[in-house]
Amino acid sequence: MEKIKIVHDKIGRTLTVWVGDPKQEYVSEETADEVIHMKDKNGRIIGVEVLNYEGVDEGDPGIAVESIVKTGT
């Protein structure tokens, strides 16, 4: 499984989450919700970028991450 990479660009006001290798990005598509899907050449989403992301206030614990592990059938 690939490592997840999260990048918060405070100046550019974006939040980018990679679930695959960023070097494999082939095409990107913007949705109506100001979210960009980055895809590999097979059309699989390997990353998403949230535009106009403001972040959190001081004292806020930040981004909450939930991990769900699936086992065999």
Describe the 3D structure.
With 73 residues, this protein is mainly beta. It has one domain. It contains no helices and five strands. The protein has a five-stranded antiparallel β-sheet with strand order 1-2-5-4-3, with no helix packed on it. A hairpin with a 4-residue loop joins strand 3 and strand 4. It is globular, with a radius of gyration of 14 Å. The model has no long low-confidence stretch (mean pLDDT 85).
What is the topological layout?
Blueprint: E1 5-9, E2 14-18, E3 27-30, E4 35-39, E5 45-51
Antiparallel strand pairs: 1-2, 2-5, 3-4, 4-5
Feature tags:
single chain, 73 residues, 5-stranded antiparallel beta sheet, 36% strand, globular
Rg measurement, Å: 14 Å
How would a textbook summarize the main sheet? 5 strands, antiparallel
Which structural class best describes the helix and strand composition? mainly beta
Taking the alpha carbons of the first and last residues, their distance comes to: 18 Å
User: Helical element count?
Assistant: 0
Q: Got a strand count? A: 5
How many discrete domains?
1
How much helix, percentage-wise, in residues? under 10%
Condensed summary:
This protein has 73 residues and is an all-beta fold.
